[in-house]
């Protein structure tokens, strides 16, 4: 037989067994026996909880699922157990902004904001007002770019490695 005919025969066997019933596992379970859950005590409620994990039996009876009876999907709804929750540390304080930087930001946004507000409210705009608003925008932008600084930090030493 050629390798191609062997493959064809194997393929025919796979197709023929497609509709055949699957092999039965132990006790009809699709998982190993060691993964079965056993009740913690001989109490009938524990067995009922294992059989009805979402509390559908209690909902069918007209009552809400009881806490601790398997029907409570959110056992920590009251927030009693804070040990399992991550509480981040308080954020560090914001850095102090110099007066020159504050004025530059005010000029950068203040000039166009004034022009927009004046146009919407139809305020009369003289030539010097337009010039001041545009000059404030350009001056604020230039001041922020100049203050930005692109060099390495002063305390980086002689070998600061790659600077991105």
From TrEMBL:
Renumbered to this chain, the Basic and acidic residues biased-composition regions fall at: 32-59
Return the annotated region ranges for Disordered. 16-94
**Natural source organism:** Thermopolyspora flexuosa
Q: What is this protein called?
A: Uncharacterized protein
Sorted alphabetically, the keyword list is: Membrane, Transmembrane, Transmembrane helix
Q: What parts of the sequence cross the membrane?
A: 103-121, 127-146
């Amino acid at each position: 037989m050629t390798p191609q005919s062997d493959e064809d025969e194997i393929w025919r066997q796979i197709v023929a067994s497609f509709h055949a019933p699957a092999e039965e596992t132990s006790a009809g379970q699709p998982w190993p026996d060691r993964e079965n859950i056993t009740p913690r005590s001989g109490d009938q409620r524990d067995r009922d909880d294992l059989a009805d994990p979402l509390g559908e039996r209690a909902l069918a009876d007209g009552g809400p699922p009881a806490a601790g009876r398997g029907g409570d999907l959110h056992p920590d709804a009251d927030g009693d157990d804070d040990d399992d929750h991550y509480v981040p540390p308080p954020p560090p304080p914001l850095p102090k902004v110099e007066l020159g930087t504050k004025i530059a930001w005010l000029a950068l946004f203040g000039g166009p904001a004034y022009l927009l507000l004046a146009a919407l409210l139809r305020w009369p705009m003289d030539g010097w007002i337009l010039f001041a608003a545009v000059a404030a925008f350009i001056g604020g932008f230039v001041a922020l770019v100049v203050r930005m600084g692109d060099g390495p930090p002063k305390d980086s030493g002689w070998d600061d490695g790659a600077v991105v």
